[in-house]
């Protein structure tokens, strides 16, 4: 009996020891996992605490940026009211001051807001970051920067202004807007033409409305049997009686070509585009010239072709039979 009691005691002690060891291992594992989660929770708590600490600064940064945004709008309004009503002020100068000045104000406001919102941030860090990436940015945005610089130069040099009728790279239209990136034209048939400023700046530009006085001309042909001097006097009289035609520079009617079917006269005169249009003046003068030539017996010839039929002797004999 004593041996059996000793065996049971040994088994009981071994089982108890195993349970203790398992309990200790489980406890260690739970403690390890709990420590990990505690670290994660503490990190999240730190982030949350840091965020809530920065919330007032973020709000202040947003308010500061909004103030600078309002200042940029006030700057635009001030420039328009101060410069737009003065006769000596260039229209494009107003555009330059509005866009460049307002952009500079917003950029300064952005830098101040970043300094307030981000601890340890300085404008020098932003400049150094831009310097490191300037080469990559330069290659990626070469065309954009080229158009930007060309737009600023166009606005400053003012080769044309909004409302002018221009021709550039074979495209004609009225200038609607000159932006930093592109120039917007309205074509005579009512379409919008967008031309990059780099193209406008490096191409030859014809400004049709640069001067109020414009020259009009057209060519009219008379027959070789007609009196050239009489025809010239008729046209000169029409030009002299038209009140829309300027007396200086003087108008003229000259023989410009001896064509196959007519003697061509080139008629030239000057008008003030603020009083009439080129197309309207040319149309009116041409109508009067046609009517006056008909009344005075001056012909306006048109191409005439003679068709000659040559018959051979064999063909003539067959027709006779």
Proportion of beta-strand residues: 15-25%
Order of helices and strands: HHHHHEEEEHEEHEEHH
- What class, by secondary structure content? alpha+beta
The assembly state of the depicted protein chains is single chain
Summarize the amount of helix as a percent range.
Answer: 55-70%
Number of strands: 8
Mean pLDDT: 78
The shape, in one word, is elongated
Measure the end-to-end span: 165 Å
Could you name the ranges where pLDDT drops below 50 across 5 or more consecutive residues?
none
Main sheet attributes: strand count, strand direction, barrel closure: 5 strands, antiparallel
Q: Please indicate the count of domains.
A: 3
Query: Which sequence of strands runs across the widest sheet?
Result: 4-3-2-1-5
Gyration radius, in Å: 45 Å
What is the number of helices? 9
């Amino acid at each position: 009996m004593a041996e059996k009691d000793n065996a049971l005691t040994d088994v009981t002690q071994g089982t108890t020891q195993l349970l203790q060891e398992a309990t200790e291992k489980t406890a260690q594992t739970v403690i390890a996992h709990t420590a990990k989660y505690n670290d994660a929770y503490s990190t999240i708590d730190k982030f949350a605490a840091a965020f809530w600490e920065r919330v007032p600064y973020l709000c202040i940064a947003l308010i500061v940026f909004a103030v600078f945004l309002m200042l940029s709008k006030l700057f635009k309004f001030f420039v328009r009211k101060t410069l737009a009503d003065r006769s000596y002020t260039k229209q494009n100068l107003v555009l330059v001051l509005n866009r460049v000045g307002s952009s500079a104000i917003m950029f300064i406001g952005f830098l101040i807001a970043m300094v307030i919102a981000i601890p340890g941030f300085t404008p020098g860090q932003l400049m150094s970051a831009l310097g490191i990436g300037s080469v990559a940015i330069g290659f990626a945005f070469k065309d954009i920067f080229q158009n930007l610089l060309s737009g600023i130069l166009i606005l400053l040099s003012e080769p044309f202004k909004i409302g002018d009728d221009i021709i550039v790279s074979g495209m004609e239209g009225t200038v609607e807007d000159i932006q930093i990136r592109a120039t917007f034209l309205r074509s005579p048939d009512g379409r919008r033409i967008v031309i990059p400023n780099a193209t406008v700046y490096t191409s030859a530009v014809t400004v049709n409305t640069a001067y109020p006085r414009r020259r009009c001309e057209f060519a009219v042909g008379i027959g070789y049997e007609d009196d050239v001097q009489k025809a010239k006097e008729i046209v000169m009289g029409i030009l002299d009686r038209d009140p829309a035609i300027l007396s200086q520079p003087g108008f003229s009617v000259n023989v410009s070509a001896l064509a196959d079917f007519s003697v061509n006269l080139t008629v030239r005169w000057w008008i003030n585009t603020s009083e009439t249009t080129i197309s309207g003046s040319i149309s009116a003068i041409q109508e009067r010239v046609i009517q006056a030539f008909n009344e005075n017996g001056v012909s306006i010839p048109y191409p005439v072709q003679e068709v000659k039929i040559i018959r051979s002797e064999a063909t003539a004999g067959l027709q006779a039979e």
